Amino acid sequence: MQGFKRARLKTGAAILASAAMLVAWPVAAQDSFPVTITVDAAKPTGPLKPVWRFFGADEPNYATMKDGQKLLTHLGELKPKQVYFRAHNLLNTGDGTAAFKWGSTNAYTEDKDGNPVYNWMITDMIIDSYLDRGVRPYLQIGFMPEALSSAPEGTAYRHSWRPGFRYELIEGGWNYPPNDYKKWEELVYQWTKHNVERYGRDEVLTWYFEVWNEPNGPSYWKGTPEEFYKTHDYAIAGVKRALPEAKVGGPDVAGSGGAFMDGFLKHVVSGTNYATGETGTPTDFLAFHAKGSPKFIKDASGGYVQMGMYNHLKAVDNGFKKIAAVPELKSAPIVIGESDPEGCAACPGPQNGYRNGTMYSSYTAASFARIWELSERHKVNLEGVLTWAFTFEDQPWFAGYRQLASNGIDLPVLNVFRMYAKLGPESVAASSSAQVPLDEMIASVTQKNDVGVMATRDGAKVAVLIWHYNDNDLTGPDADISLKLSGLGKAKTRKVTQYLVDKTTANAYTVWQKMGAPQSPDQDQYKVLEAASVMHPKVLPAMAVSKGAAALDMPLARQGVTLLIIE
């Protein structure tokens, strides 16, 4: 960030007379550009669901480890008992040792006579870690235990993938259909029954249950579409047998799902249920995935990351269209079960260099706003947008994985979710002269600075979220924002509190770089990094209000995100 101009607080009636209320900001770069933002707090535009409160990761066992538990605590604090976590590999065979894109619980094995042996110790440890920290399961039923896998003889069960390997090397015996569908159903029934007994019926009724992950691609599913429908039906039958009112859905396809999703939607509406023989399959929510496509652009300076948000938003757009086109399902709740700037949280590479810093946080703010907007356009029932990012235990500091924290230190992106947690339940009218139109954001990479806004109301409290995003991860001019508010009521003054994330604020990554990028920070350095990651509220001078109107001038650096609470 190159610095700021002085910001001015102004009343709607006497802008120039408010010089005595100047806020001392640093001097801005001369190439800043003007942006006008208007908010009408008296003009509601509809409810704003907290769709951001869903997270997930490939590696379930990290939830029981030191940094995983610390991060779960931070997630649970966002909205206690309303945050959900989804994890792959919860039924895999193994000893519970965590690894990249792998996990295991040994929940199901068989004795020498082929009789089932159930062991819930590790699954209980994982779910306990969630619930103890105010987080609830979005419970993925998968993958296939070794004793139930129909993989050809000689197929390795566990994959040998590691960062840098080709993605398809994650394949193994774990991603095959069951060799016995009745045993598969019984496994799911016994697990659900155990969860009800351990955690209570009322608790488990709040969970989401879905089967598998991305069954429309070979990396996660080695069967046919029909075999997946069958695997899905038997699993759902097992859940419902143990808890008839359980919230079940799926299929968490990659992207909008193409022909596979079309076939699945037809099957759950009008197909013959493989497990029950009835028409259709219980479907309480629907899920698909949406990913961006960043790339590394080489230039004379060495190069930079160019994000591909358009690809992310196109997948959301197409997914909503598919569901809205099925009359029986168009009002069903939708969870975008993975929604991210790209597709592999554990994959390194220069195209993923956006992850540690403020490109990730500004992308998150800009993309979530458009996903909310798309849900309104298609009139679908968007319930959740799940960020596939957690943490990777005992890895190098700021190693460049897609995560929310590194070695127990929160990354800037997590502070955007803290801002979301402060938004009110009702949207109000807001617009920005520099917000890129939705259709332009979907069409292709844009070279424009996207300075956008969302605003909410909670009683007399108004929240204004503003971001400054650009698809290119390059330095650029600040936005010189003139914020004009109306509908603030009869009070003559309003308290204003600002939360900010940018290159120098609430950003431990830049502090770590200034330290010399130590790979073994001592306890004093750790405390400094921990403090630098925290987003501190800044109380601005009281805002003068005249006839319900007020104004505020402020700068916002490129890749900055700010939240103003006016009360």
Automatic annotation (TrEMBL):
Lineage: Bacteria, Pseudomonadati, Pseudomonadota, Alphaproteobacteria, Caulobacterales
Protein's name according to its UniProt entry: Beta-xylosidase
Signal sequence segment: 1-29
Species for this entry: Asticcacaulis machinosus
Occurrences of domain Glycosyl hydrolases family 39 N-terminal catalytic (ranges): 36-533
Keywords, in A-Z order: Glycosidase, Hydrolase, Signal
Entry's family note: Belongs to the glycosyl hydrolase 39 family.
